[in-house]
Amino acid sequence: MATSHLPAPRVVITTHDKSGTSIFGSDTHVTPFAPYGPGSSSVTVLHTASKVPATVVDPLPSTDTPSFPRPPPAGALMCTVDIPAGVSSPMHRTLSLDYAVVLAGEIVLQLDGGEETVVKTGELMIQRGTKHEWINRSDSPCRILFVMVGSEKVVLEDGKELDAEGV
To answer: Considering the entire predicted model, what is its pTM?
Structure first.
């Protein structure tokens, strides 16, 4: 039987004590952010680095600020996106290089030219600033883990720049 939602992600963050010994700095479940209301897609921002290479000695970042997943221009962001059965996202483009893995369920990745493919649990995607939408045509929720790295704008051969669009 399909479930209507997935449990809140648990995030374990390691750090160092004053002597340099590795310790657990945080171990918590993070509440997803559902900007379009109940029954819609939800986003859980798990970690953000303001720049790459990242510093690992700053105070632990907050994971309780609800926001759309957008990495800083020179940084990186890790998040999950949960898409319920029968739900789709708006067509959009982010200024980022996105590494993604489907953790649960399956999702249709549709590009603005109409091409689409089904990506299933355990399969990976690398998105390079493309305009796309997510469509869950299955009867189960889908969870995708993303690591998004800020990128330059896409510049076409004729010099036209493609900006971020949509959500």
So the answer is: 0.90
Identify whether the C-beta of residue 83 lies closer than 8 Å to the C-beta of residue 145: no
DSSP 61-75: PPS---------TTS
Q: State the Cα–Cα distance between residues 121 and 46, nearest whole angstrom.
A: 20
CA–CA gap between residue 55 and residue 124 (Å, rounded): 27
Tell me how crowded residue 1 is: count the other CB atoms within 10 A of its CB: 4
Query: What's the angle, vertex CA 32, arms to CA 138 and CA 30, rounded to 5?
Result: 125
Q: Is 90 exposed, middle or buried (0-12, 13-18, 19+ CB in 10 A)?
A: exposed
- Side chain identity, residue 138: S
pLDDT digits (tens, 9 = 90+) for 148-163: 999 999 999 999 999 9
Q: Residues 37-69: pLDDT tens digits?
A: 888 899 999 988 888 888 887 666 666 666 677
Q: How many Å apart are CA 154 and CA 162, to the nearest integer?
A: 5
